[in-house]
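Researcher: Let's continue the batch. This sequence belongs to Taste receptor type 2, and it's 322 residues. Same format as the previous ones, please.
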Amino acid sequence: MCEICSSPEEKPSMFVIIISFTISGTECIIGITGNGFIMAINGTEWVQNRKFSTSGRILFFLSLSRIALQTRMMIENFASLIFLSFYKEDTIYELFRVIFMFLTFCSLWFATWLSIFYFVKIANFNNPLFLKLKWRITRLMPWLLLSSVIISFCNSVLFSLHVYNASCSDLILNPFSNSTKKKYNINTNMINLVVIYNVGMFIPLIMFILAALSLIISLKRHTLQMEINTIGSRNPSMEAHMGAIKAISSFLILYIFNFVALLLFMSNIFDENSFWNISCKIIMAAYPSGHSILLILGNPKLRNAWGTFQHQMKFCLKGRTS
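Model: Same format as before. Here are the structure tokens for Taste receptor type 2:
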């Protein structure tokens, strides 16, 4: 007697299901709400003005990629906890991974271009190359965003070709009755995973860090110039520098945690429903949610719009209860 292929892991306990759904589900809902708000504000601006500002365009596509990413997280979390055998099927499993990495790469690239755009617009350098970039960044940005999507797609496809290999193995249940059960196994090529993962993640990350360091250098030069000219310690340029540096630093901290959790999750070194694997899912869900909140709090236009939205919601709720 031989059974069809099934997942090697046992069904998760009710405690694991509740914890995973409650924490990561709440994080995903917060992230989808925050990114949906950012996308709605910038989309409304595009409809009203018939054009996108450069920062608005980047924020729109960054939010769109993260809404898709966290929606996919919720679907995969549900499938891995409730329909584990279906989730572990070869085609389904690879499809989840490819989509996941594509959206992750896109999200990182868009966040990198946002940081570079802030750096180019805020920093003050007399280098001819920098001045040329400052002048052309608005026209270049649509092509940079499009090229990021193409690069992200190519990198993500490599995961389905060279990283995961599904196989079925026979497990003898009873040697006397000759009964066996097919067990489904996911084999991960760790060398290919690390190479493809790092190529896809490190290039935008290095660009992101270079933009952050250059912005800090620009702030230091601006501060020294203010001291020489005996100008007050706070001015609009200083405020812009500090705001951008805080935003970039906060994103970098979130990204480092996400980078480690994502690599561990993709390597399959933990059981599907183990504490460590669930922890990785929680950290990965927190990253886009936390960054969307930081973007709203750090952007005056978004912060004011969020305050107006909250005020209108309170007014509507009071009207219904009265």
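Researcher: Any comment?
Model: The CA atoms of residues 202 and 308 lie 39 Å apart.
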